[in-house]
Write a sequence for this structure.
């Protein structure tokens, strides 16, 4: 054997020995670094953060951040901390579908999501269902009232339920002639059929029903036509920019008449747009909003609000979300997912999803808990729990929907003031 | 009051804003052949400048001046430092459209990043309403209409009676020939972008005044009617843009008096399609010409 071949043999022997030693060490340690950190569970905030509905995203973050603050402060779930990560759908299915696919493909530690909204739900819910991603959706589309999606959960009222609430409040306020001014987007239009049905059932007359093209520079002709039919009140759901233009033009042309809107009417972006357009006094005097009943009191809300106000570095001007029922439902969604994981002793999405109903529905012998910390402590003792969220009790039906009463509210000096309520029983009576 | 007369008045307001905007847009295209799809976002940026001026206690006149000045500077800067380098590197028309779309996205997201996803209103006193010939206007709307008339007269005078205007028309018609005739086309293009930018900024402030509450996407949403007005009149023809603006503005409002208002935009674009089927070059252009971008 030549010197060259011997040298090569020694080199290859040394290489083989090195590989063998390495393999041996890896085998002893299980092939993993000695001190592996458990992965952080990602809660996807899957909503528009840009485009026409860019205001949805910050509202969602305002619910997610206080929830993970409390979860992480409470030791996390099964050794895992939580984080909120934004996934921008741009409010358009064409952008939302790739965003959903990317979110699923690039986040192996995705625990669940908040969203999707009405802008992208129809396109993305099937994708999320197939990937077994529990989703606390904020879409109100009636399509999901009786769907068979196992991973779809909704603790915001469906749009069609809002129609009943609007009609009931207007009747209570003594109105008999109304105009329906709703945006021509799918989310707003889904309120209209039940509103028309309920208003007629209550003896009211809908004198005008307008599908408004959104974000136009003028609605003066539409306003003149509407006023010609002499409504006493306007039912509405239109986006903030459209509302600012429409209501300021109504004010300029003839002065305002009472306006009764859905919960969007009480959300910070709408309030900002319309207050800037018509002034604070007019806001208080003429604009009433109906939102899901979410009293800003009680142990659950206090826990949520304290954590929200402490989340200043992640949530700008956090107090603007303190009474926002959607922000509360996002918070409740994250806490519910965390408690369900603890209940199922698993962060596996396919496993813990079944426990979501178990930790929220009432039942004999259950411990009622108002926070993640209380829930974790009770579960650790082997107790069964019912989580009551910042937005109130959560009672899912067999299609995973939970809705309840509505409250009427007005804006007074920058704060939302509750002026009355429409009960779940009253709504139920109309739906029969 | 008669609904159609009222709608006509309302249409005049929309047409006025469209006229200011579309003449600026078409000037940019006419002189340099750049279809600037960031135009609407520059309008929005100028609306935000006006907002800051009024928040600091400025009047409507000061807000309009600030908007016009910022629009002029922004448009000049865009052309000189962004678009022209691409053109000189050989980017052709379609490529330039992609560049302007990119600029639009940068501007829109930049504005949203600075001002956040919320709504703004110019901090001006609420105007009074007046009835004139069966139509209702506010004092601010009279200002918008007056501005549009003054702007159109100014553009007409500039193009018809000044050396600069003749140079702009020559550059628009044939830039190579204009250069060989001794026209400093670079300077002409700069002035065209300054002027069109001033119109863009003024239109942005007028739009913010009209819609009352605006956000970072307001101008972008208004871009389609602007392009429609410019195309209807013949792209690159300021007089055509004026006529196009009146047609689009009036038809949108008048149609809302007859058909469901959710279709009012559709009517305006149907008119555009019908006109283009009969005259593909638009109302005022003599013939449909194909020319490349100019730098």
């Amino acid at each position: 054997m030549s010197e060259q071949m011997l040298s090569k043999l020694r080199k290859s022997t040394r290489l083989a020995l090195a590989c063998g030693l390495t393999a041996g060490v890896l085998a002893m340690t299980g092939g993993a670094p000695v001190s592996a950190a458990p992965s952080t569970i990602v809660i996807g905030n899957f909503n528009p953060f840009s485009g026409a509905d860019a205001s949805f995203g910050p509202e969602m973050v305002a619910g997610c951040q206080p929830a993970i603050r409390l979860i992480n402060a409470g030791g996390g779930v099964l050794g895992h901390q939580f984080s909120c990560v934004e996934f921008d759908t741009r409010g358009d299915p064409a952008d939302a579908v790739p965003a959903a696919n990317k979110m699923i493909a690039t986040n192996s530690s995705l625990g669940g999501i908040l969203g999707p909204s009405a802008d992208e739900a129809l396109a993305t819910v099937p994708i999320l269902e197939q990937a077994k991603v529990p989703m606390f959706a904020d879409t109100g589309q009636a399509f999901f009232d009786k769907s068979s999606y196992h991973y779809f959960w909704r603790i915001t009222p469906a749009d069609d339920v809002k129609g009943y609430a609007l009609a009931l409040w207007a009747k209570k306020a003594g109105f008999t002639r109304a105009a329906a001014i709703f945006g021509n987007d799918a989310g707003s239009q889904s309120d209209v059929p039940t509103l028309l049905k309920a208003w007629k059932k209550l003896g009211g007359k809908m004198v005008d029903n307008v599908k408004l093209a959104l974000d136009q520079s003028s609605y003066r002709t539409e306003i003149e036509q509407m006023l010609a039919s002499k409504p006493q009140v306007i039912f509405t759901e239109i986006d903030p920019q459209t509302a600012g233009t429409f209501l300021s033009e109504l004010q300029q042309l003839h002065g305002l008449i009472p306006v009764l809107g859905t919960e969007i009417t009480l959300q910070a972006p709408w309030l900002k747009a319309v207050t800037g357009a018509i002034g604070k006094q007019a806001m208080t005097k003429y604009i009433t909003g109906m939102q899901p009943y979410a009293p800003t009191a009680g142990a659950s809300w206090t826990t949520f609000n304290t954590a929200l106000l402490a989340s200043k570095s992640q949530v700008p001007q956090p107090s603007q979300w303190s009474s926002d029922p959607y922000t509360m439902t996002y918070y409740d969604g994250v806490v519910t997912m965390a408690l369900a994981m603890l209940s199922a002793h698993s962060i596996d999405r396919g496993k813990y999803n079944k426990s979501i109903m178990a930790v929220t529905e009432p039942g004999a012998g259950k411990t009622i808990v108002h926070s993640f910390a209380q829930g974790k402590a009770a579960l650790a003792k082997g107790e069964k729990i019912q989580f009551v969220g910042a937005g109130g009790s959560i009672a899912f039906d067999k299609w995973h929907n939970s809705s309840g009463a509505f409250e009427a509210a007005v804006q007074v000096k920058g704060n939302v003031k509750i002026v009355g309520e429409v009960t779940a029983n009253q709504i139920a009576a109309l739906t029969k | 009051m008669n609904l159609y007369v009222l709608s006509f008045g309302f249409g005049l307001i929309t047409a006025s804003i469209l006229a200011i905007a579309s003449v600026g847009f078409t000037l940019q295209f006419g002189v340099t052949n750049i279809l600037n799809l960031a135009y609407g976002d520059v309008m929005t940026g100028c609306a935000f400048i006006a907002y800051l001026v009024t928040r600091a206690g400025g009047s409507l006149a000061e807000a309009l001046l600030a908007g016009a000045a910022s629009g002029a500077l922004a448009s000049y800067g865009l052309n000189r430092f962004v678009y022209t380098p691409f053109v000189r590197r050989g980017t052709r028309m379609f490529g330039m459209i992609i560049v302007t779309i990119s600029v639009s996205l940068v501007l829109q997201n930049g504005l949203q990043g600075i001002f956040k996803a919320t709504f703004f209103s110019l901090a001006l006193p609420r105007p009074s309403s007046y009835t004139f010939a069966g139509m209702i206007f506010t004092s601010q709307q009279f200002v918008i209409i007056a501005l549009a008339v003054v702007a159109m007269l100014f553009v007409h005078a500039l193009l018809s009676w000044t050396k600069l205007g003749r140079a702009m028309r020559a550059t628009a018609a044939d830039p190579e020939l204009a250069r060989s005739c001794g026209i400093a086309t670079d300077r002409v293009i700069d002035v065209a972008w300054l002027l069109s930018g001033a119109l863009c900024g003024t239109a942005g402030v007028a739009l913010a005044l009209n819609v009352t509450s605006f956000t970072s996407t307001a101008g972008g949403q208004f871009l389609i009617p602007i392009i429609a007005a410019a195309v209807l009149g013949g792209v690159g023809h300021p007089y055509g843009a004026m006529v196009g603006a009146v047609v689009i503005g009036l038809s949108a409002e008048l149609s809302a008096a007859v058909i469901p208002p959710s279709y009012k935009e559709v009517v305006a674009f149907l008119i555009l399609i019908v006109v283009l089927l009969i005259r593909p070059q638009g109302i005022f252009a003599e013939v449909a010409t194909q020319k490349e971008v100019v730098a």
